[in-house]
Write a structure and sequence with these properties.
Blueprint lengths: L10 H7 L3 H16 L1 H17 L11 H13 L5 H7 L4 H8 L8 E5 L13 E6 L7 E4 L4 H13 L3 H4 L11 E5 L11 E7 L2 E8 L8 E3 L4 E2 L18 H11 L5 E9 L2 E8 L13 H7 L9
Helix pairs in contact: 3-4, 4-10
């Protein structure tokens, strides 16, 4: 079957039809076409991305490396074969109930407010410091310290609510998450500095490695579960300093094991603040698959740990 070819709307033409019924029609057509073609265009997008990163076609029939299995997961989910639990656990609001029921609500950061109307944010009732983030996306956060720029916050979070994070990297777990805004307590160390983010890589219910990130995301050393330094990274040229072993490492690993049961691969993120462990998030497709292992042999080492039958 042949599809009609539509000429692109150029800048000059766009200016001419702006604020006309034709402009509205073009916008509606694009939105409908995007939804109808989402799966086929999403798969093509992911296949191109894998080839661009690794310089070879993706082996969908028999994926062996970690990055092959990651893209296999994303493409399989994009085809519509994603169990609902992955969407629930990627939802930063809905996941709170799962964590509370599985390991206890004491591991959750305090939720100060949530909703889907930015103008209803109770600024006058919030503490001096807090964190704002969306339930349906990743990597979007506003940290407020002191006087809040209310208009700017409302503008930013309104943009979050209007967007669908799926389109950034075709991560299907985000596609149908109800848009909400969450405001949580701001966690700090004793000296007021932001805490490290401990990202625990779990395979088949077993914690295997821990990556440490600081709040500026410019370090990413890896350690094993006994805190021996691992000589690899998941990005070329990464800064990998040694950092001290967290006091509550054993508790963190126990939580990761409980929360990762039933998943071939999942990354569990935690904070370790003032003697307490706090849950951060479930991550099923880190960096939307944009990962390059150095040295490359670790791609296969980690891939061999991932049992894809748990995804199926």
């Amino acid at each position: 079957m042949e599809y009609p070819v539509y000429a692109p709307v150029t800048g000059a033409l766009r200016a001419q039809i702006q604020d006309t019924w034709l402009h509205d029609l073009v916008v509606q057509y694009r939105a409908i076409r995007r939804r109808v073609m989402r799966r086929s265009e999403g798969e093509a997008f992911l296949l191109r991305r894998y080839f661009r990163i690794h310089g070879k076609p993706l082996n969908l029939t028999n994926p062996r490396t970690f990055t092959e299995k990651m893209f296999w997961r994303m493409i399989t989910w994009n085809r519509g074969n994603m169990p609902p639990r992955f969407r629930q656990l990627a939802d930063k609001y809905a996941v709170r109930a799962h964590v509370a029921n599985t390991v206890g609500e004491e591991y959750l950061t305090k939720l100060l407010w949530y909703g889907n109307d930015p103008r209803a944010i109770p600024f006058d009732q919030l503490p001096a410091e807090y964190v704002i983030k969306p339930s349906h996306a990743a990597g979007q956060v506003i940290i407020v310290k002191g006087q809040a720029d209310r208009d700017e916050i409302i503008r930013a979070v309104s943009g979050w609510l209007a967007g669908n994070y799926y389109w950034h990297g075709r991560e299907s777990q985000y596609y149908r998450i109800p848009p909400r805004i969450l405001i949580e307590e701001y966690l700090t160390n004793e000296d007021g500095s932001p805490p490290f983010d401990y990202k625990v890589y779990c395979f088949n219910g077993t914690p295997e490695q821990i990556m440490v990130r600081n709040h500026t995301h410019d370090i990413c050393p890896f350690f094993d579960t006994t805190w021996d330094f691992l000589d690899f990274s998941d990005e070329i040229g990464a800064v990998r300093p040694w950092v001290p072993k967290p006091a509550n490492l054993a508790e963190m690993l126990t939580l990761a094991a409980k929360l990762s049961v039933g998943f071939g691969y999942v990354r569990l993120d935690f904070y370790n603040v003032k003697g307490r462990v706090y849950f951060g998030e479930f991550t099923f497709t880190p960096a939307a698959g944009i990962i390059t292992y150095d040295p490359e042999c670790w791609d296969l080492k980690l891939g061999e740990k991932w049992d894809l039958s748990l995804d199926r």
